[in-house]
Structures are given as C-alpha cells and as structure tokens.
Amino acid sequence: MNKVFKALNDTTRREILDLLKEKDLTAGEIAEAFNITKPSISHHLDILSQADLVTSEKRGQFVIYSLNTTVLDDILSWMMTLRK
Amino acid sequence: MNKVFKALNDTTRREILDLLKEKDLTAGEIAEAFNITKPSISHHLDILSQADLVTSEKRGQFVIYSLNTTVLDDILSWMMTLRK
DNA sequence: TTTATATTTAGATATTTGTCTAAATACCTA
DNA sequence: TAGGTATTTAGACAAATATCTAAATATAAA
C-alpha cells in the first residue's frame, strides 16, 4: 500500500489519473494538460507505474498510458474497516 | 484532500489510525506502541490533526486522541468514481 | 540516411519530510 | 511551593521529493 499512497500524495498525479479515467492518453497528451515540463510529467508517470496505478504500452513513437484501479482495492478496504 | 493524502502517506501514521480504531488513547500510550521518540510521535499526531483524521482533548496532564474518519469520505468517493 | 518528433534519462537544486536531542509548557501531588 | 509526569516546541540534520535544463534514445518521415 505504501507505493500507492505515495503515488496518490500529489495533486498532479491525481489529476493524471482523473484524465486517464476518461480515456487512454499518450505521454505527450498528458503533458499538454499541465504547466509542467515533459520530463517532470514523465517522472510522475513513472511513479504511477511503479505503484501500478497506470500501465503503458509503446505504439510507434508514442507511449500510451492507461488507468489501472485494481490496486486501489486494498486501500479502499483498509479505509472501510477504519470507518468500521 | 491534499492534507489527508499527505497524512496517510506514512506507515507510522496509518498504524496510529489503526490503533485508534480500537479505542481512544493518550499521546503517551500511542508513543509506547512505536520505536520512535515521543516528540516524533507528537509531530505525527499534529499532522493527523491538521488533516482532521484525529481529534484531541486535554484531560488533566493527558491528551486523549480519537479517530475521525469523516474526512475519508471525499477520498473514498473519489476512488470509487475513479473505478467507475 | 538525414531530419523531425516523442519520450525518457541524467544531473542539479530548492523544498519538504521524518527523525533526533534539548528545552519549554502544563498539570498533578505532596 | 517544589518536584514529578505528560506533552509539545524549537532547532538541527539527513533523506526524499518535485521541478528544471540538457542530453540520450527510439521511432517515423522525407
């Protein structure tokens, strides 16, 4: 759960997930949505990947990112039991 | 949501919440559960308080901490819509 | 093969974070 | 009031983090 919480602890990364909720996007399309340089967005995507919150697939010159929410299940159930 | 995610992004703090799920505890009782100095635990409790994940009440020399899970609601619903 | 586009890697830097020790504050009890 | 216990505050420090620029890599197109 550590890596997931770490990945979620950043507004930009949470907004990236919100974007990917709508549809898969290339790294460049994601970067265009923010006032941050591409290398910085690439770094954010790497952290999201490490947490398995996104998956990526290379297609030609592009890298397409997709949302993966299955890793949220543990956090969700932890929070639910915390609420009891 | 920022402060809550920040507060949750630490194993010690999440374990403090787990402890408080069982029953209210004084700062000292919480500190005893960890191999960390009391000032450090106090700092963690401060971060949890700022996020409103715990409330505290002074009773004599003691400060009693309680869990407050209502601030998790926003996060929970955000995660649920992310899963769609 | 050369040039252009998409993305990541490397390295630097300022800020934030978790931890510590020492000191301060607050309350209780004799 | 004096001494003891509980907790927090202050200040320091090493490690982690978010960001940037410059360079490297990979693919596509001319």
From TrEMBL, chains A, B:
GO terms for molecular function: DNA binding; DNA-binding transcription factor activity. InterPro entries: ArsR-like_HTH (IPR011991), HTH_ArsR_DNA-bd_dom (IPR001845), HTH_MetalResp_TranReg (IPR051081), SdpR-like_repress (IPR047796), WH-like_DNA-bd_sf (IPR036388), WH_DNA-bd_sf (IPR036390). Keywords: DNA-binding, Transcription, Transcription regulation. This is Winged helix-turn-helix transcriptional regulator. NCBIfam families: HTH_metalloreg, repress_SdpR. It holds the Pfam family HTH_5. It comes from Pontibacter fetidus. Residues 1-84 form the HTH arsR-type domain.
